[in-house]
C-alpha cells in the first residue's frame, strides 16, 4: 500500500500521508514525499500544495525503529529543504501531533495551519537526541530564540493556540481541517508569499542569556545529556549562518543517536508503549468504568480519588465516621488547591473536581459504582471487613480493588462471593502524581477484571505493570534489596554520605539513606516487627537500631543523618556513628561509580529473581517500575537495561 496519495482540486493539490499507526517518517514515506515534490513541481496546473495526514495524527516524527540502523536516503534534512525549495508553496495541515521530524517537515512548508485540538513540538531530547532535520535552526526563526530554547530543551509539545501565539503556526481551525486548509491556500495565493523559514532573520541573545539558560537546563536535565547539546545547537543557530548551524545540528544528532543515553531512552519509549496493552489481554474487553468508589480518605485514598477526578470519573469517598470523612475531604481539597497554586488548575476546575466527589459514611452509596478501591489501614482484618461490606452493597459485576502494598491480596480476597472481580491496584504516593500502577491479580481474577485494571491505568494516564504475588510485589521487593545492599556496604565501612552521593551522581534525586530520612524509617521497621511478631525470621537491620534509638528520620530531627530544626539538609551524625560502631566491620574503599554499579547490580539481581519466578513478565516492566515508582534515572533505562549494557 502506498504511504501517500495525491489529489487535485483546481490549482491546489493535496498530498495525504497514510502511514499507520502515527505516520512516522519511514524511508518509504521520505521517498514518497521527495517524489511528490517533483511530481507537483512539474504539474503546470498546480499552484499550491496542502500536506495533510490520514489517521489519528499528523506526522509524529522520524521512525524511531530505524534509529538502530544506518541512515538511508533521502535524509530528512534534505527532504525538509526540498519541500521548502519547491516551486509551489506547501501548507502543512496539522491534526493530532506534529512532533520532531513531523514538525520539521511542517517548518519546511511555507505555512502551517492546525486544528485547535492539535499540538506541535520537538520531543527529541526525551529520546536522548537533538532534532536532526533543522528543528534547532528553523524553530528560532519562527518563534524567537527564547521560545525555541524552552521548546527544544524541554521537549514538551504546545497546543495549537500557544503555537499560534508563538508564531509557530499561521492559523487555527475548530474543525474541517482539509476544507479550511484549501481555503487558506487559495487565499494565500492572492498575496505575496512570506519568505521561506530558513531565510527569516534571527536575533541573537547576549552571552549572559546563554549562561543563564545553561544553568536552568543543567538543573532540569538531571544528568541527561541531550538537553544541553540541544542548547549548544540553538546557540549555534543564533550566532552562525544557516548552513553552518545545520551542519552542527546534524553532527550533534548523529553523535547522540548512537549514545548509551539515546539507546536507554528508546528502550523506555517502547517499554512504555508496550506496557498498557499486554498481549494476553488483546482479545479481552474491559468493563465500563464510569463511577468509582474509594474507601479511606488518608493520603493514599485522597490521592487515588484525586487521580480519578482528574480523569473525569465521579467518585464516592467513604470513611468510617464524620470526623475522618471531613479530614479526607479536606485532604482532597488541599490536593486541588495545591494544583491551583502551581497553575495546573483554575479555581473553577478545582471546584468542578470537588463537585464530582460524594463524601459519605454509608456504603449503600456504592450500589451503582463500577469500581471500588480500598485504601484503608494495612491490616488484614480491617481490609477483609471492608471487602465484606463491599460485597454486600456493590453490583455483582463491580470491580473491587485493594491498594495494599505489602499484604497478600489472596488473603484479602478470601471469602468473597465472587473473587473473579477482585484485583490489587497498587498506587504510589502521591497517587495523583506518580505514574506507576502495579496491577496484581489473584488466581481467581477474571480476565475482564484484569483488562479493566489496564483500562483504568490508561484512563488515569498511568503506566501499568502487572505483578505476581510476592512480598512487596515488584517495586518494594527491589527497594528492600537495594536498601539491604546499601546497609551491607555501610557494614563494610563505606560511609553513608558516600553511598548517597554515589546514587545522586548516578542520577537519583536522593540516595537510599536520605530517602529513608525523608519518608521515615519507622514504616519499614513496623513491617519487619510485624513479621517478627508473626514468627518469621527477619534479621535485624541497621535501620532497626536507629528506630529503636528514636531516630525515625527528618520528622524526629534525625535518622541516618542529623537535621537542624527547620533545615532539611542532612548533616553527618556522630550519634549514628556511635550507635552503629560495633556493626561496621570493614574499611572498604569504593569510589562513587563502583558504589552505584554495585547497588544497581543488586536491584537487577532481584529483578532477575522476579523474572525467574514469573512475578514480572518482562525485564522492561521492571525497568518501568523503577523509573516511574522509585526515581531511577530515565536516561539510564532502568536497572535491567543498565546492567545489560554495563555487563
Ligand atoms: C525525530 O523525529 C528526530 C528528527 O528530529 C530527526 C530525524 C533525522 N516511530 O504512543 P502510541 C508507535 S525523533 C515509530 O501508543 P498515541 C508506537 O510504538 C521522533 N513508531 O499512540 C505504537 O506502536 P504499537 C520524535 C512510533 O495515539 C504506536 O505508534 N517523535 C513512533 O497514544 C502508537 O503509539 C516522537 O517522539 C515513532 N516516532 O500517541 C513522537 N511514535 O501500536 C513519539 C509512535 O506497535 N510518539 N510509534 O505499540 C508519540 O508521542 C505518540 O505516539 C503520539 C500518539 C502522541 C504521536
TrEMBL record:
Residues 472-563 form the 3-hydroxyacyl-CoA dehydrogenase C-terminal domain. The keyword Lyase applies. The keyword Glycoprotein does not apply. Gene3D superfamilies: 1.10.1040.50, 2-enoyl-CoA Hydratase, Chain A, domain 1, NAD(P)-binding Rossmann-like Domain. It comes from the Bacteria. InterPro entries: 3-OHacyl-CoA_DH_NAD-bd, 3HC_DH_C, 6-PGluconate_DH-like_C_sf, ClpP/crotonase-like_dom_sf, Enoyl-CoA_hydra/iso, NAD(P)-bd_dom_sf. It catalyses: a (3S)-3-hydroxyacyl-CoA + NAD(+) = a 3-oxoacyl-CoA + NADH + H(+). GO terms for biological process: fatty acid beta-oxidation. It is found in: Peroxisome. Pathway: Lipid metabolism; fatty acid beta-oxidation. Keywords: Fatty acid metabolism, Isomerase, Lipid degradation, Lipid metabolism, Lyase, Multifunctional enzyme, NAD, Oxidoreductase, Peroxisome. Residues 292-466 form the 3-hydroxyacyl-CoA dehydrogenase NAD binding domain. Monomer. PANTHER family: 3-HYDROXYACYL-COA DEHYROGENASE, PEROXISOMAL BIFUNCTIONAL ENZYME. This is Fatty acid oxidation complex subunit alpha.
Amino acid at each position: 500500500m502506498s504511504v501517500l496519495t495525491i489529489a487535485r482540486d483546481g490549482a491546489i493539490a493535496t498530498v495525504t500521508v497514510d502511514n499507520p499507526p502515527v505516520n512516522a517518517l519511514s524511508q518509504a514515506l521520505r521517498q514518497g514525499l521527495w517524489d511528490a515534490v517533483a511530481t507537483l513541481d512539474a504539474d503546470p496546473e498546480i499552484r499550491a500544495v496542502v500536506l495533510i495526514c490520514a489517521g489519528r495524527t499528523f506526522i509524529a516524527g522520524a521512525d524511531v525503529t530505524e534509529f538502530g540502523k544506518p541512515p538511508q536516503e533521502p535524509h530528512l534534512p534534505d527532504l525538509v529543504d526540498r519541500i521548502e525549495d519547491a516551486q509551489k508553496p506547501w501548507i502543512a495541515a496539522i491534526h493530532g501531533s506534529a512532533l520532531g521530524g513531523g514538525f520539521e517537515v511542517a517548518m519546511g512548508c511555507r505555512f502551517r495551519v492546525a486544528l485547535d485540538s492539535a499540538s506541535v513540538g520537538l520531543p527529541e531530547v526525551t529520546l536522548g537526541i537533538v532534532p536532526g532535520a533543522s528543528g534547532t535552526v528553523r524553530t528560532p526563526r519562527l518563534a524567537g530564540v527564547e521560545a525555541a530554547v524552552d521548546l527544544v530543551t524541554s521537549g514538551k509539545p504546545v497546543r495549537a493556540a500557544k503555537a499560534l501565539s508563538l508564531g509557530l503556526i499561521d492559523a487555527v481551525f475548530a474543525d474541517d481541517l482539509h476544507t479550511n486548509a484549501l481555503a487558506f491556500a487559495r487565499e494565500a495565493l492572492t498575496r505575496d508569499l512570506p519568505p521561506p523559514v530558513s531565510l527569516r532573520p534571527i536575533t541573537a541573545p547576549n552571552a549572559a542569556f546563554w549562561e543563564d539558560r545553561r544553568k536552568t537546563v543543567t538543573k532540569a536535565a538531571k544528568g541527561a545529556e541531550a538537553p544541553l547539546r540541544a542548547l549548544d545547537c540553538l546557540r549555534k543557530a543564533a550566532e552562525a549562518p544557516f548552513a553552518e548551524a545545520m551542519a552542527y545540528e546534524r553532527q550533534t544528532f548523529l553523535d547522540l543517536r548512537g549514545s548509551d543515553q539515546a539507546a536507554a531512552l528508546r528502550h523506555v519509549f517502547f517499554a512504555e508503549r508496550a506496557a498498557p496493552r499486554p498481549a494476553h489481554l488483546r482479545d479481552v474487553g474491559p468493563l465500563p468504568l464510569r463511577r468509582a468508589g474509594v474507601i479511606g480518605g488518608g493520603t493514599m485514598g485522597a490521592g487515588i480519588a484525586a487521580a480519578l477526578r482528574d480523569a473525569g470519573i465521579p467518585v464516592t469517598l467513604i470513611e468510617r465516621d464524620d470526623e475522618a470523612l471531613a479530614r479526607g475531604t479536606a485532604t482532597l481539597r488541599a490536593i486541588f488547591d495545591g494544583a491551583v497554586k502551581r497553575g495546573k488548575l483554575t479555581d473553577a476546575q478545582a471546584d468542578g473536581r470537588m463537585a464530582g466527589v460524594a463524601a459519605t459514611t454509608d456504603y449503600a452509596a456504592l450500589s451503582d459504582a463500577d469500581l471500588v478501591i480500598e485504601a484503608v489501614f494495612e491490616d488484614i482484618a480491617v481490609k477483609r471487613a471492608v471487602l465484606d461490606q463491599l460485597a454486600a452493597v456493590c453490583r455483582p459485576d463491580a470491580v473491587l480493588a485493594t491498594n495494599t502494598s505489602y499484604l497478600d491480596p489472596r488473603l484479602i480476597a478470601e471469602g468473597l462471593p465472587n473473587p473473579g472481580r477482585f484485583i490489587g491496584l497498587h498506587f504510589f504516593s502521591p497517587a495523583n502524581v506518580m505514574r506507576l500502577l502495579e496491577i496484581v491479580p489473584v488466581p481467581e481474577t477474571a480476565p475482564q477484571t484484569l483488562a479493566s485494571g489496564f483500562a483504568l491505568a490508561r484512563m488515569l494516564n498511568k503506566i501499568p505493570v502487572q505483578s505476581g504475588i510476592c512480598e512487596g510485589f515488584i517495586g518494594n521487593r527491589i527497594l528492600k534489596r537495594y536498601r539491604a545492599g546499601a546497609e551491607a556496604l555501610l557494614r563494610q565501612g563505606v560511609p553513608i554520605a558516600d553511598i548517597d552521593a554515589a546514587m545522586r551522581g548516578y542520577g537519583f534525586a536522593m540516595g537510599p539513606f536520605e530517602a529513608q530520612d525523608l519518608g521515615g524509617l519507622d514504616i519499614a521497621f513496623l513491617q519487619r516487627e510485624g513479621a517478627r511478631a508473626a514468627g518469621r525470621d527477619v534479621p535485624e537491620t541497621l535501620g532497626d537500631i536507629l528506630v529503636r534509638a528514636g531516630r525515625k528520620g527528618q520528622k524526629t530531627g534525625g535518622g541516618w543523618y542529623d537535621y537542624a530544626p527547620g533545615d532539611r539538609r542532612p548533616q553527618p551524625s556522630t550519634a549514628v556513628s556511635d550507635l552503629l560502631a560495633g556493626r561496621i566491620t570493614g574499611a572498604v574503599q569504593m569510589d562513587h561509580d563502583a558504589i552505584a554499579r554495585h547497588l544497581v547490580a543488586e536491584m537487577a539481581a532481584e529483578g532477575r529473581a522476579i523474572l525467574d519466578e514469573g512475578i514480572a513478565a518482562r525485564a522492561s516492566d521492571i525497568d518501568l517500575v523503577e523509573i516511574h515508582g522509585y526515581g531511577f534515572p530515565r536516561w539510564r533505562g532502568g536497572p535491567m537495561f543498565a546492567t545489560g549494557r554495563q555487563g
